[in-house]
Design goal:
This protein has 65 residues and is mainly alpha-helical. The protein has 2 helices and no strands.
Length: 65
């Protein structure tokens, strides 16, 4: 998963710059991108990673149904 890879880089303090760009052009994708940028600006990388982890877990639990 992307989130787990990013968390690994952050925890090991690897000096890397990564950009994540939403590829879907839907209202939902735009809203998610806005939320991600807001969380990064307001709460930092840690807050963004917690949010992305929660979203990924939500999708995994939906897929398990």
């Amino acid at each position: 998963m992307l989130v787990e890879s990013l968390q690994g880089f952050v925890k090991r303090k690897v000096p890397i710059r990564i950009g994540v760009v939403p590829t879907l052009r839907t209202a939902g994708a735009t809203d998610q991108a806005k939320a991600a940028y807001h969380l990064l600006d307001t709460y930092g990388l840690s807050g963004l990673l917690h949010y992305l982890e929660a979203v990924c877990q939500l999708f995994v639990s939906i897929d398990d149904r």
